[in-house]
Amino acid sequence: MMTKDQFMANLEAALKKLPTAERKGILEDFEEHFTIGLSEGKTEEQISASLGMPQQIAKEMVAAYHVEKVEATATTGNIFRALWAVIGLGFFNLVIVLGPFIAVSALIIAGWVVAVTFVASPLLVLINVILYPQNFKFFDLFVSLGLAGLGLFLAIGMLFITRWLISGFVRYLKYNMSVVKGGMKHV
Q: What's the pTM?
């Protein structure tokens, strides 16, 4: 059983990874929980027990913060921070979150590599002509130009697919967080 001061100190220490403004907002919310609980006649220990473990609450808050940042700006750094924060919610998430993330990342990377390679194929034919002029064939040039056009279409498609997969993965992270929380309502 923890007193209010112990609970708040543990929560604040566990929230160090968050920016100061975000951390202050969360701490104010939990101060309010204690104020309301005390006005209802509960003890500090009862209130802290009903809220849960400060470390687990902090993990959930950090994960939610990083997932929200990915929704606002889907940079590679934000995605990795959100991924690791959600994995940090439990060992089970290491398999459930990391596996799909690796699979989705591999598909995105493979699609982009194919698109860029197709677009660069005329350059490869030109390099081949410079190195081995006796092997030049118009067929190679026309095929490479066709591949370049296909590569441009593929790149445009990959742009939309990448955005769609990132937003889907963010939804998956949010769903996973809600499952891990088990419907607990902290704030």
A: 0.58
